[in-house]
Amino acid sequence: MWRLTWVGVLGHKLRYALTAFSVLLGVAFIAGTLVLTDTIGRTFDGLFGDIYRGTAAVVRAQEPFTPQASFTSTRPRIPASLADQIRQVPGVSAVRLSIDGYAQLIGADGKAIGNPAAGAPTLGEAWNDVPSMNPYTFLPGSRPPATAAEIAIDKHSADVGKLRVGDRVRVLTQGAPASYQLVGIFRWGNADSPLGASITLFEPATASVVLGEPGKVNQIDVAAASGVSQQQMVNRLRAALHDPSLEVLTGKQITKENQDAVRKALGFFNTFLLVFALIALFVGSFLIFNTFSIVVAQRLRELALLRAVGASRRQVTLSVLGESLVIGIVASAVGLVAGIGLAIGLRQLLILFGIDIPSAGLLISSRTVLVSLGVGIVITMLAAYSPARKAGKVAPVAAMREVAVSEETRKLRRLISGCAVLAAGLALLLTGLFAHVHNRLPLVGAGAVITFLGISILGPLISRPMSRLLGAPLLSRGPIGALARNNAMRTPKRTAATAAALMIGVALVALMSVLAASTTSSVNAVVDRTMRADFVIDSGGQPGGATGFSPSLQQKLDSLPQIASSTGIRAGSVRIGDTSTVILAVNPKRIDYLFDVGVTQGSLLNLTPTGIAVSQRYANDKHLRLGSRLPVQFTTGTRNFTVQAIYTARDLAGDYVLPIAAAEQNFSQQLDFQVYVRLSQGVSAAAGRAAIQSVLADYPTAKLQDRTEYKAARTSQIDQILNLVYGLLALALFIALVGIANTLALSIHERTRELGLLRAVGMTRPQVRTTVRYEAVIMALFGTVQGLIVGVLLGWAIVAALHSQGVTVLSVPVLRLLIIAAVAAGAAVFAAIPPGRRASRLDVLAALATE
Amino acid sequence: MTATSVREPGIPFGGVAVAARMIDAIKLYGAGDTTVRALDGITAEFPAGQFTAIMGPSGSGKSTLLHCLAGLDRLTSGRVMIGDVDLNSLNDKEITVLRRRRIGFVFQSFNLVPTLTAQENIVLPLSLGGEKPEPNWFADLISALGIGNRLRHRPAELSGGQQQRVAMARALITRPDLVFADEPTGNLDSHSANELLGQMRAAVDSYHQTVVMVTHDAHAASYADRAVFLADGRIVKDLYAPTTDTVLDTVRALGG
Questions:
Q1: Which residues of chain B make contact with A764, given a CB cutoff of 8 A?
Q2: Distance of alpha carbon B117 from its chain centroid, rounded?
Q3: How does DSSP classify residue A362?
Q4: Which chain B residue shows the shortest CA-CA distance from A759?
Q5: Which residue in chain A is spatially nearest to B170 when comparing CA positions?
Q6: Which residues of chain A have pLDDT under 50?
Q7: Cβ-defined contacts of A437-441 (< 8 Å, 24+)
Q8: Is A840 strand, coil or helix?
């Protein structure tokens, strides 16, 4: 039987090549992603290993609670004076005081270097003269900062900002903007910078003021004398310090913690790309299923003959399954190789986005090889399983005559099984979206996959009427249109399976479009309803992130005569009850001029430094009233607050708001991520803008936005994400279109004789091509219409699920969806070109003579 | 029944319009030692309004002659004229349009597009050119062929004889210069075959239709005005007013 398998594969090279292509693309994506992330991971393992080589132990504060935002920490600083105590511990050879915080470099062109909101962080650190624990290697002609007026920066930032030793460089910190003399440029281990982060080194005393708090440090690194092990050092330190609020780690542990952090960051990237690879393979599996179904149908007589001469069902099934195995192996192997090429391309893309990756050989792990080959082969064989079984079920008499199968019972079975699968998928999906479960994503993902399967099982039942409907306008085109429509209708299962692949891609695109449009509308609605400010000055950072403006910006703005009122919005990680969250702090005296938060009880105006405002909903949930006590845990400790106001606009402010005074006392970082401004009466927008701009000259990260611009900026972030997702989903759409071309090629092969007849009685070549094109468009529209319906419904469900997250408006971007439909139909026209050309070039006589 | 008793004798060469003509036709297949001369210098005229049967053993070139004459295949050398149009001077598109407008086809089997109804199949050559049938002509045809109650059916719902009659209607709908029939009765039972042959005969007699039919069946040939015998790519006998007996005699004489 193996011989038959080989002959089967070789005999259908083209159609199998197209099928294999879809597997190849998906596998290449998987392999590329894995190779890239492995390579980056290994590079950073090495870097951190080098950097912490001299560190025997680290002393720092315990993290009081895990913050809500990723890659941030709630760890408080520790007193610098601990260093003296540590130096007394036997075996300590050196101590390094580590201070870090927000520092934004400004390049020679006046623009901020790096954007921490969309990439690697911009950090400031204290220079420490302990050679064994120093990760920095200074370039020739440069030196570390020695005075308060000097800094040194990493090579990556120097290159990006075109900065040279001797330049005056502006740096934004939580203090007022200041200029420093650039005295040194360094590398971090053998990298230009860690993952493209920008690093500014200050002289230690300066660092403690501009980056943190005077007299405090983030952590203390300890080097041990020779003969003292890391664990011994840690034990001695623990004994000597004897403070449960402190944490003492070995150098190995801190190395691993940093390596894990990089791996976690890569994990997001990894998951993101792998999801798209799996979508591509899922779509591709429809293509495989379809190809095998058609090939089996075409070879029905041959298979029946095999059965007639004595092949068992099992043997026939295995021979077809064997073909899928061969294709799976070949496609996955080529895909693996292509993926290694893709990894190189992706690395260049990351570098383009400012993520610095030290060059190193690509790491192709055995896991990459196994996963890529395994996934490719398993998906191919799974998709081919049902056609292979069908091949085994061919009755031997079919070799002699056409055997009709009863359609009716099959239709009923299909309806029942399709509805059952669809219901199961929807149940999973809705549970994932609406039930109170812990890990929603796997449920939603599996639910979506099963929902799509259910719809594609039902597809053949509606494909005939849908093709009839969608093809109706073509009837005005005469017999060509009628032929195209009838061709699309004659093999409903084939049409449905081809359309299903497109349906999935279009549904995901439509879903993302609805989600993005709804989010945009919701944001706009909130801004329209609640914002009274004339201007927003935005730092580009996220609430609770490590970036923002020094509070000096708001103070300077407030002193302008053109400005009636302003407040900075400060944010910090806190824990309230069992929930880690980010809390906002505002100036309560000004808020009424700037926002309409809908205060129903109490007053924000009278919020004292120990007062808190909570949302109506939170108050109801937790049975809070004016005067209730609400403990809030900060990184610096827990404080008791008194509820002094209750408001309704939780989509703007969240569930709790603090006065700035409370933030100043309790937040570890004093950065405003936004400043809201209202102009004095009689000041024109233009005059106000000019006045604000004059202050902003010192703050290059600041973006001044009026209400319209503010909304547009929020919207453009959503659009950027949407475009990225569109780009990746284009892969799935491309595979679906390959599927259309494949199905058409096979159908044309079946209809060779009919085409010969049509050509003989006077159909011209362009007319043949047009027929094929119309058929492609009908199939594409069928898939697109299904996809749009499914996508909009799923989008609606997800928007409903996100209601509590502030997505309150359902918005269906009709124009955009119509454009998607038009693009899909247009692309189908392209997909129809190769099969159309083949059909039109058939030799009339040879075609007529075909059996 | 002898067909000769109910029809005019064949119209001789000259003086009458010629529907199609083949001049010094040579058609080679393959190359080198394996070259096959399917047509080996054939010159023939097919006068308008005449029913010609082309006969000959397998491999005699009769199908090739038909294909070249019908513009489905091109000669290696020589010329084919449909009316006064030289097929050599036409490109693929022009030949296609010529086939659509001026030539009708009836094949042995698989004559109809399975996804179109009988009516759609009949008017296909017209509708491909964006034209509509003359209502009277269409009505005449379907009543003469007896398929009026089958127009909405798909080919799969028609019997073999009905399918061939639908094909005949399609061949005649454009009032072509020529109808080519390639073994049209090859797959039919004798009753349906006689019916179809009678209808072809009637088309010649009533509408002055020119018909060229390839067949190996002496009985079918007896419906024609003239039987042309081919062997090894040459015309070996031109028999006027053939009967089943004279055809069989000729076949025996040539074969033996």
A1: 93, 96-97, 128
A2: 23
A3: -
A4: B96
A5: A761
A6: 403-407
A7: none
A8: helix
Q: What b-and-e string marks burial along A715-749, b requiring 16 or more CB atoms within 10 Å of the CB?
A: beebeeebeebbebbebbbbbbbbbbbbbbbbbbb
A458: Cβ contacts below 8 Å, ≥ 6 apart: A414, A415, A418, A419, A422
What pLDDT, in 10s, does the model give residues A194-204?
Answer: 777 888 999 98
Does position B8 have pLDDT exceeding 50, yes or no? Answer: no
Q: ipTM of this predicted complex?
A: 0.85
B73 CB neighbours in chain A (<8 A) are 844-845
In contact, A546 and A102? CB cutoff 8 Å: yes
Report whether pLDDT(B256) > 80: no
CA distance B229 to chain A (A): 23
Here the tokens at position B195 are 């019916």
pLDDT at B186 over 90: no
Phi, psi of B181 (to 5 degrees): -125, 125
- Can you give the pLDDT at residue A546? 62
The distance of Cα A178 from the centroid of its chain, to the nearest Å, equals 36
Burial B189-214 (b: 16+ CB within 10 A, else e): eeebbbbbbebbbebbeeeebbbbbb
Output the DSSP codes for A401-437: S--PPPHHHHHHHHHHHHHHHHHHHHHHHHHHHHS--
d(CA B162, CA B167): 9
Distance of residue B93 Cα from the nearest chain A Cα, in angstroms: 6
Query: Quick one: which of A294, A302, A334 has its CA closest to A319?
Result: A302
For residue B108, the distance in angstroms to the closest alpha carbon of chain A comes to 11
Residue B145's Cβ-count burial label (10 Å; 0-12, 13-18, 19+) is: buried
Is residue B14 over pLDDT 50?
A: no
Task: Write down the architecture of domain B16-111+177-255 according to CATH.
Answer: 3-Layer(aba) Sandwich (3.40)
Q: Which two tokens stand for residue A70?
A: 């990723």
For strands B85-86 and B77-82, give the pairing: antiparallel
Q: What pLDDT, on the 0 to 100 scale, is given for residue B1?
A: 36
Q: Which of A754, A762, A845 sits opposite B96 (nearest CB)?
A: A762
| Closest-CA residue to A672 (of A75, A196, A172, A207) | A172
| Planar angle of CA B151, B153, B155, nearest 5 degrees | 110
